[in-house]
Amino acid sequence: MTPPDLRTLSRRGLLAGGLGALAAPGAFAAAPANGRLAFAVYRGKDKVGEHVMRFASAGGGLSVSTEVEMRVKLGPVPVFRYAHTATERWRGDSFSSLTTRTETNGKVEQVQAEASAGGVAIEGPSGRLTAPAAAAPLTHWNTAAFERPLFNPQLGKLMRIRASRAGRESVQLAGGQSIPATRWTLRGEAEIDNWYDTAGAWAGLRGKLEDGSTMIYRRL
Fold first, then answer.
1. H or E stretch including 37?
2. Is 64 helix (H, G, I), strand (E, B) or coil?
3. Distance between CA atoms of 52 and 12, rounded to whole angstroms?
4. Please, which contacts does 56-60 make with residues 24 or more away whose CB atoms are closer than 8 Å?
5. Which residues contact 25 (CB under 8 A, 6 or more apart)?
6. Cβ atoms of residues 70 and 20 within 8 Å
7. Distance between CA atoms of 17 and 30, rounded to whole angstroms?
8. Do residues 181 and 189 make contact, with C-beta atoms less than 8 angstroms apart?
9. What values do phi and psi take at 72, rounded to 5?
C-alpha cells in the first residue's frame, strides 16, 4: 500500500488555509461568534487529523491562528506526518500579514507575507515575490478573499485558481447532522469545494487528491 499523497493536497492550499464572509462586505462576517472553528479531517472514510482555527481581536483588527495536525499510519506504523501553523491578520476588509510554518515528514517550509500600498511582499521556500496589493492567502474561512488574487500560504506562490458561488445545499458535520449551507467551488490548479453556514462561517471542505482519493473536512 502506498501512503496517500497528502503533501500534494497541502501544496494546493487545502490544508493551509485555513484556512473565509459569505456575501457580506468586510472580512469579519465569517468569524464565528465563539471565536473558534475546528474540523475533523478525513481521507476517504479514515480520520487522519484535525484542523483548528482561533479568532481574536488584535490591534483594532482580526488575528486568526491555525493549527493542523495530520498523521497517516500503515497498520501501527506512521508513514506520513504533517503539521501546519499560521497567524493571519486582517484590518477591516484588508489583508495585513501572514506567517506560516509547515513540517511534512521532517521537511520544514516557512512563509511570511506583508501587505503595503505597493503590493503584498511574500517570502517563501522558492524566494521572494511581490503580489498585487489586493492579494490574500487561500485560507478558506473568508469567502471575501475569493474575489482577490490568491496565494498559497504554504508555498508563498500566486495561484491559478477561480472561485464561484454554487448555490444553497446542505453539508454534514462531524457529529453526523446536516445543516443548510452555501457551496463555493475553487477550480484551476486545485479542485476544492467549501461550504459556509447561514452565518457565513466555514462549515466543511472536500478536495480531490492526485491519487484519486478525497479529503474531507467535517466541522466539529
1. strand 36-43
2. strand
3. 19
4. 58/89, 60/91
5. 93, 144
6. no
7. 14
8. no
9. -115, 135
Instruction: Name the DSSP class of 43.
Output: E
pLDDT the model gives residue 76: 84
**Cα Dmax for the chain:** 52
d(CA 159, CA 113) in angstroms, rounded, equals: 15
- Residue 53 corresponds to which cell in the numbers above? 482555527
What's the mean pLDDT when you consider all of the chain? 87
Q: How many other C-beta atoms lie within 10 A of the C-beta of residue 219?
A: 23
Q: Which grid cell is 103?
A: 513540517
* Residue owning grid cell 465569517: 30
What radius of gyration, in Å, describes the C-alpha atoms of the chain? 16
CA 112/CA 11 separation, integer angstroms: 16
Q: List for the chain the helix, strand, coil content (%; round to 5).
A: 5, 60, 35
pTM: 0.86
